[in-house]
Amino acid sequence: MIHSFLMIGQSNMAGRGYFKEVPSIYDEHIKMQRNGLWQIMSEPINFDRPSSGVGLAASFAASWRLDNPEDEIGLIPCADGGTSLDDWVVGSALFENAISQAKLAQRTSRLSGILWHQGENDCSPEKAEIYSEKFAVIIKTLRQELNVPEIPLMIGGLGDFLPNGIFGKYFASYALINHELEDFAKAHANSYFVTAKGLTANADNIHFNALSQRILGVRYYSAFRDLKHVLELHNDEENRLTTIYNRPYTQTEKIKLLEHEFAVGNIESKDFLSELAILNGK
Question: Per-residue DSSP letters for 35-47?
Fold first, then answer.
C-alpha cells in the first residue's frame, strides 16, 4: 500500500531550492506520480517551471520513511508557481487538475494528507481579510470531491525574509497572510500550521533556499505525525536530515542510479557494464 500526499499551492510548494546546496535524497520506496503512474522520486518533483528545484516534499517523504520503513509513500505534485488563491478556487483549472491527479493516485494508493503552501501572491490587507473564507471553501470541496473528509491538511507559513528583498514592496503585508494561515489551521479540524521561523531564502528573498526547504519538509512531517501545529523551531531538525542523508543505498537503488548515469550520457557503455557487474557481484 502506498500512502499518498497531495502537493498544492504556489512556487514554494513546488520548490526553487538549488540542487548544489544540499545532498540528494533517493529512496526506491518514495514515489512520485507522473502521467497517473508511480515512479521512483527524483527532484525536481514538482516540475511546474524550468526553474523548479528542491522543495519540501522530498524531506517530508524521507522523514515519513524513517518512521514507516516497511511502507511506501507517494507524492502527487500539483503546485504551480506564482498562483494566487483565486487561481485555486473551486472549478478552476488548478483545482480540477488537483482533483484529477489525486483521484488517479487513489486508484493505487491511500490518500493520507494534503500539503499546502501559498500566500505570497495574496500579500495585501484586502486579500488577507477574505483569505480564510475563500480557503475554507477550497479545502472543504477538495475533501468532499476526494471523499476524505478528515484528511490532515498541513499549512506552511510564509518566510519572514519576504519584505527584505528586491521585490520586498510587494510583501509588506505578509504577516497578515501568516496570521490568517495560522488562525485557519487553529480554527478548522484536521488542519495544522507549520512555521517558517528561522528559515532563509535564495537571493530573490521570495523562495526558500534548499536547506530551508529540507527543514520545512521535516516540520511538515512533524505536524502530520503528531497531528499538532509546529509553531517553534525544533532542535533535532538538522539531525533528522543527517540521518536521512546517511541512509545507505539499497542494491536496487545503486543499480537505478547507475542506469540513470548511463541513460543521460555521464558514463560510457564499458564503464556502465563494468560497474553493473560489480554491483551484481560478478
Answer: TTEEEE--S-SS-
DSSP H helix total and E strand total for the chain:
9, 7
Question: Which parts of the chain are beta strand (E)?
Answer: 2-9, 30-34, 37-40, 72-77, 109-117, 153-156, 191-194
DSSP structure class, residue 34: E
- Is residue 223 within 8 A of residue 230, CB to CB? The reply is yes
Strand partners of residue 7? 77, 115
Reading the block at residue 10, the C-alpha cell is 504556489
pLDDT digits (tens, 9 = 90+) for 192-232: 999 999 999 999 999 999 999 999 999 999 999 999 999 99
The pTM is what? 0.97
Name the residue among 128, 111, 113, 88 with its Cα closest to residue 1: 111
How does residue 179 score in pLDDT terms, banded at 50, 70 and 90? very high
**What percent of the chain lies above the pLDDT cut of 90?**
97
Q: At 154, which amino acid appears?
A: M
pLDDT value at residue 235 = 82
Under 8 Å between Cβ of 230 and 192: yes
**How is residue 206 written as a grid cell?**
521570495
Upstream peptide bond of 248 is cis (omega within 30 degrees of 0): no
